[in-house]
């Protein structure tokens, strides 16, 4: 595994998230605190409804906490405007979801390139990065295939390529192997470990997958929105 920095990539301080559901307050997260070091390969574990995905969405600035504070590289996320949060997601974060979330009318290379277009990179640099990252995830020969022409494992590889092509400091992966067979899932985990080791990308997962839990630097267990380990 990559050597861990003493620098903190993400910190959650007493974070709570409360949703209102049919006149009932649902505590998705309850006073949850966490520090993630740069270069860490960390897994959030726990039963369904424990708050794992909510924690990832909050770290990724896709939602805001009801209370508490979230710091990314020492900067408070909730103090940012919506435009600043959008820029943060675009420039510093990569996302991998269990449903792949690829754009069906774009090829593999176009799906990956879309991130770099949003970052405003020039055509030649985009081309080099896209080719390099697709080769890195073993899809150099599938660049011009559409998602429907790819297997589930190949689509998830495209999603991972898209997540890392912008050189994010942090990749958030929400149940990334849930829709894959065990062999394909293991191959993807090994690939993400390699990216962690070679590029020192920080990974935070929410997962039930024992294969990810076995490979993680550290496992944080949640139950009913609270941290229990």
Which descriptor suits the 3D outline? Answer: globular
Tell me the series of helices and strands, N- to C-terminal: EEEHEEHEHHHEHEHEE
Total helical elements? 7
| Major sheet summary line | 6 strands, mixed
Report the C-alpha radius of gyration, rounded: 17 Å
Query: Any guess at the CATH architecture?
Result: 3-Layer(aba) Sandwich
Strand content: 25-35%
Helicity, in percent? 25-40%
How would you sum up this structure, described in words?
Helix content is 36%, strand content 28%. It has seven helices and ten strands. The strands form two sheets. Strands 6-7-8-3-9-10 form a six-stranded mixed beta sheet. The model has no long low-confidence stretch (mean pLDDT 92).
Essential attributes:
229 residues; alpha/beta; six-stranded mixed sheet; four-stranded antiparallel sheet; globular
Provide a concise account of the structure shown.
By secondary structure, the protein is of the alpha/beta class. The chain has helices at residues 52-59, 82-92, 108-119, 123-136, 152-164, 182-199, 210-215; strands at 8-21, 24-37, 41-45, 67-72, 75-76, 93-97, 170-174, 202-206, 218-223, 226-227.
Helix/strand layout:
Blueprint: E1 8-21, E2 24-37, E3 41-45, H1 52-59, E4 67-72, E5 75-76, H2 82-92, E6 93-97, H3 108-119, H4 123-136, H5 152-164, E7 170-174, H6 182-199, E8 202-206, H7 210-215, E9 218-223, E10 226-227
Parallel strand pairs: 3-8, 3-9, 6-7, 7-8
Antiparallel strand pairs: 1-2, 1-4, 4-5, 9-10
């Amino acid at each position: 595994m990559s050597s861990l920095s003493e620098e903190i990539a993400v910190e959650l301080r007493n974070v709570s998230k409360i949703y209102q559901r049919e006149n009932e307050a649902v505590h998705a997260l309850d006073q949850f605190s966490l520090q993630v070091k740069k270069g860490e390969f960390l897994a959030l574990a726990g039963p369904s409804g424990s708050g794992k995905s909510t924690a990832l969405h909050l770290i990724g600035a896709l939602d805001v906490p009801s209370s508490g504070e979230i710091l990314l590289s020492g900067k408070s996320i909730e103090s940012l405007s919506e435009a600043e949060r959008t820029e943060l997601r675009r420039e510093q974060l990569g996302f991998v979801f269990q449903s792949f979330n690829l754009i069906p009318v774009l090829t593999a290379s176009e799906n990956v390139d879309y991130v770099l277009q949003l970052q405003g990179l020039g055509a030649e640099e985009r081309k080099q990065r896209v080719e390099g990252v697709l080769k890195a995830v073993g899809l150099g020969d599938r660049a011009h295939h559409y998602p429907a022409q790819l297997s589930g494992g190949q689509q998830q590889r495209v999603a991972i390529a898209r997540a890392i092509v912008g050189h994010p400091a942090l990749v958030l992966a929400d149940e990334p192997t849930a829709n894959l067979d065990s062999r394909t899932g293991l191959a993807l985990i090994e690939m993400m470990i390699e990216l962690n080791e070679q590029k020192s990308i920080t990974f935070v997962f929410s997962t039930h997958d024992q294969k990810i839990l076995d490979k993680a630097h550290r496992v944080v267990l949640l139950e009913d929105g609270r941290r229990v380990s």
